[in-house]
Amino acid sequence: MIKMNAKKKQAIFVIVLLLIQTISALSHPTGNMITVGDDVLWPYIYPIDDTNHKASIMIWNKNSEPKIFLQSEHSASDFMLYNNNDEIYIVERRFLQTTQSFEVRLLKTTVNTQPKVIWNWIKDDWRIGEGGFIMLNDNQMVFARHPEIYSLIKGEKPKKFFDFDQPIKRIRAVAPNLILLMNDSACFMVQHVPY
């Protein structure tokens, strides 16, 4: 048996996380990866050859094998993730064949609880969550949709969150009131004031 010190174990853990993120990005470019404590969560299609394309969220930590955390009941679905400490927000998107349109809903959970619907299904002409999203509270989110950053209050229409002089494709929360904005050629760190 090979003994490893803590630094080697940590290095292996980081390498495995990067491999999972790379595989996830290649197989499911819509989703993103988050960490909650020692757990890593990412969207995936499981099984990979599922012809109905029912999205799943996988969970893994260094003490267990990857397993399904949540699986959508809907065909042609996707999950996008955001966490605020232990709280996990999940945008679930589904494609409706009958209307040839997308709908999204918002779920909230923690690693050890069942997800609860906090926003019911709404029509999604904005590709909400695909470019990343941040929850300011349970009733308001901020999301990127090229080339702008929008705010969406539950039950209302999206509005421009703030003006930025560069087109934006992705958004990530870095710290309270600090957002990372990304486009094809640059990253920008900006402060925002929550509403």
Task: Please provide a written account of the structure.
- By secondary structure, this protein is mainly beta.
- Helices cover 11% and strands 47% of the residues.
- The chain contains 1 helix and 15 strands.
- It has one helix at residues 6-27, and strands at residues 34-36, 39-45, 55-60, 67-71, 77-84, 87-96, 101-109, 116-123, 133-137, 140-145, 148-153, 159-160, 170-175, 178-182, 187-191.
- The strands form 4 sheets. The protein has a 4-stranded antiparallel beta sheet, with helices on one face. Strands 5-6-7-8 form a 4-stranded antiparallel beta sheet, with no helix packed on it. A 4-stranded antiparallel beta sheet has the order 9-10-11-12, with no helix packed on it.
- The longest helix is centred in the first third of the chain and has 22 residues, at 6-27.
- The chain is globular, with a radius of gyration of 17 Å.
- Residues 22-28 have low confidence and may be disordered.
Précis, in short:
The protein has one helix at residues 6-27, and strands spanning 34-36, 39-45, 55-60, 67-71, 77-84, 87-96, 101-109, 116-123, 133-137, 140-145, 148-153, 159-160, 170-175, 178-182, 187-191.
Radius of gyration over alpha carbons? Answer: 17 Å
> What summary fits the major beta sheet?
4 strands, antiparallel
Low-confidence parts: 22-28
Give the mean pLDDT.
87
Helix and strand run? HEEEEEEEEEEEEEEE
Shape: globular
- Which structural class best describes the helix and strand composition? mainly beta
For the biggest β-sheet, the strand order reads: 1-2-3-4
Quote the beta fraction: over 45%
Distance between the termini: 56 Å
| Number of helices, counting only DSSP H or I runs of 4 residues or more | 1
Helix content: 10-25%
Number of E-state strands: 15
